[in-house]
Amino acid sequence: MPSSKHRWPLWPWLVLTIAGVVITVVAAIVGTAASNDSEAAPATTRVTVTATQFRTTTVTETITETPTPTNGPATALPDGLHKVGIDVQPGKYATPGPSGTNAGGCYWSRTDVGGGIIDNGVYRGPGTITVNTNEVVETAGCQQWNLMG
User: Fold this and answer.
1) Is residue 12 part of a domain?
2) 84 - beta bridge partners?
3) pLDDT tens digits for 52-77?
4) What is the pLDDT of residues 73-127, one digit of tens each?
5) How far is 32 from 123, CA to CA, in rounded Å?
6) Residue 66: which of 149, 148, 121, 144 has the closest Cα?
7) In a domain, 129, yes or no
8) At 147, which helix (H) or strand (E)?
9) How far apart are CA 47 and CA 20, in angstroms?
10) With a threshold of 0.85, does the pTM exceed it?
């Protein structure tokens, strides 16, 4: 019994090889002709560069703090940190609202002496807070707070 092996035809490989050689020769001729053309305009390349710049700005703010008078704790809270019972008297304080120095409004916070937040908030109008002895109260961007009654 004769063995019949299936043989793939050679002609497709031969055609593709000849086509590849022809394309390579034509590309070489065109490339050589283009490089010898002295009157041709030089090729231009357009490159677009996009740069992003981040600017860091250092803001320096000077805060002047008036020492507590020797006649006892104050009854008014200017912006800053104050220890209740030593710097200011405990009680309920009121403010007419933001002073305009803080874009977020009138910020206030009450913390314990260890720094844990008891309460905080922001007023965009008049407001009140009640502070107790052994707390620290901080205000920023507020008009002066005054002890009520």
Assistant:
1) no
2) 88
3) 666 666 767 677 766 655 678 999 99
4) 999 999 999 999 999 999 999 999 999 888 889 999 999 988 899 999 999 999 9
5) 78
6) 144
7) yes
8) strand 145-147
9) 33
10) no
Give the integer Cα–Cα distance in Å for 76 and 87: 10
| Residue 106 forms part of a structural domain | yes
Count: domains in the chain: 1
Give Cβ neighbours of residue 130 (< 8 Å, ≥ 6 apart): 91, 92, 93
Burial status of residue 80 (CB atoms within 10 A of its CB: 0-12, 13-18, 19 or more): middle
Q: Quote the domain boundaries for residue 121.
A: 76-147
Q: Is residue 19 part of a domain?
A: no
Written as one string, the DSSP assignment of 90-141 is: SEEEEE--B-SSSTT-EEEEEEETTS-EEEEEEESS-EEEEE-TTEEEEEES
N-term to C-term CA, the chain: 122
- Rounded distance between C-alpha atoms, residue 44 and residue 130, angstroms: 73
